[in-house]
Amino acid sequence: MTTQLIAVWIATGLGGWLIGVTRGRPVWGFVIGFGLGFIGMIIMLVLPSKTPKTQKLMMEDRRPPLDAVRMSASIARALLWAEKDLNLRRR
Questions:
Q1: What's the pLDDT score for residue 88?
Q2: What's this model's pTM, rounded to 2 decimal places?
Q3: If phi over 0 gives left and psi between -120 and 50 gives alpha, with beta otherwise, what is residue 52?
Q4: Residue 37: phi, psi to the nearest 5?
């Protein structure tokens, strides 16, 4: 009975650690999982992530929306057209 209890205690500690790794808090996950058992694992699942966004998500956040890209391209074309028009008028 006691060996089973110890095995479950260690398993919930390791489960909390695994959840903590994904949240950026592995030690905290192990301590909460080991100390509170399954309730600690649920608490770790509810906690927000501490780690920053992945590089891919950060790049997607920096990328301008497609409408802004199209608008800037059309503005650039209009400015080039206006510049050509002004150069023709000066001659």
A1: 57
A2: 0.54
A3: beta
A4: 70, -135
